[in-house]
Amino acid sequence: MITKFTIGRRHSGDTWDVSGLVSNVKWVTDLNFAAGTLTFDLLFDEVFYPQDGDVVEFQWDEQKIFYGYVFKVSFKEDKKFSITAYDKTRYLKNEDSLVWPISTISDRFDTVCKMAEISHKVVNGSDYKLPAEVADNKTYFDMLKSSIDKTQKATNQMYYVLANYDVVELRKAPYNELNIIVGDQSLLTGFSFEKSIDEAANSVRVIKKNQAESQQTSSTSSVSEESSGEDPAKTSFNYTDSSAGNVQDWGKLQKVENAKDKANDAQMKQRADELLKEKNRETYTLSLTCLGDTSLIAGNSVNIQIDDLSKAGFWINNTAIMKATHTFDVDYKCDLEMKVNEPWLENNSSE
C-alpha cells in the first residue's frame, strides 16, 4: 500500500500529498548504467500542476522506495498527467572532459558525484589502482563504466551504481544475497529462459601488421583469416592454433582482434587466450514474473527453484537481478531480468 507519495517544488519547499491521485505506478532499477525510474499517472487537480524538476518521494508499506525529480510530463484528454521521474543517478548522464590520474573506482565515483552535485556514498570500495587516462567529452556514467569494467577484469569483482532513496551508492554485486526463493512454491507467477551461442566464440585470432615488411603476424586460439586487402606478394600470416574443445559440438565460431602496436608474440598469445576464455560461453537469459517484494532490486541475488527448468536440463540455483520493474497496484508484482552464468557468479550460478 502507498504510505507516502508527495510532489514538491525544489526550492520553495511547497509540497503536495498526491497519494490519492496516483495510479499505474512503476519503479525500475537497472544495473546497465541507467537511472532509476518512477513512472505514474496523476489525476488532474486545479490546485496543483506538476513541473519539471519537482521532487518526488514515494514510500510503499512504510519502505522508502524512490526519491527523484520530474523529467517528463504529458497531459491528455483523459485529464491525467503521465509523469516520468528519475532518481539522482540521472545526473551522471552529465557530460564532461577529465584527465584521470592513477586512482581507484572509489576515487573516481566520489569525484564524478561531487561534480554532478549529488549526495553519494562508497558502500563497497576497491583498492585496485586504475591507470591514468583521458576521458574526453564523455558522460560520468561512461567514465564509471570504463573504470568498473577494468576493475572487474583485474579483480573479478563487479561494482555498480544505484540510488538508495536519496543517496547514490557504489556497491559490489551481488550486494545482498537474499534469503528469498523465487520458484514454483514461492512468489513465481511466470518465467522464460533462453540459452544461445549467437555471440559466442570458440576460436580467437589476434592480428598485428608488421609495418616494416608490410606483413602481418598473428597469434591464434584456433583460426583461419580473411585477406586484408594488402598486396598478396607482400603479405603473410604466422600463427599458432589453440582450439577449444567444444568446436566439435558447436562448430568453429571465430573472433578476430587487432593487437596493440607494440605487442610481442607472447602478449598476443596471452590476449588471444584471454578473449577465448571470455567469449567461449553460452549466453543465458532468464526473465521472471513474481509477486512483489521491495527487496527485489537490481544488484541483489535470489535463490531460484523452478522444477520445469531442472527437468529441461537447466540447473540455476542462485543468480543476481540485473533489472527489476515493480508495478504497484492492487496486485503488486515484479518483473525481473536475471544475470545467469556470468563470471562474477560462476561458482554459484548455472552449470
Describe the structure in your own words.
- The protein is mainly beta and 351 residues long.
- 15% of the residues lie in helices and 43% in strands.
- The chain is built from 5 helices and 21 strands.
- A hairpin with a 4-residue loop joins strand 20 and strand 21.
- The longest helix has 16 residues.
- The C terminus is likely disordered.
Q: Which secondary-structure class do the elements indicate? A: mainly beta
As residue ranges, the low-confidence spans are: 345-351
Strand content: 35-45%
Largest sheet: 13 strands, mixed
**Helix fraction bin:** 10-25%
Cα Rg: 25 Å
* Number of strand elements: 21
Give the N-to-C terminal Cα separation.
Answer: 39 Å
Number of helices: 5
Give the overall shape, derived from the CA principal axes: globular
pLDDT averaged residue by residue: 88
Element pattern in H and E: EEEEEEEEHEEHEEEEEEHEHEEHEE
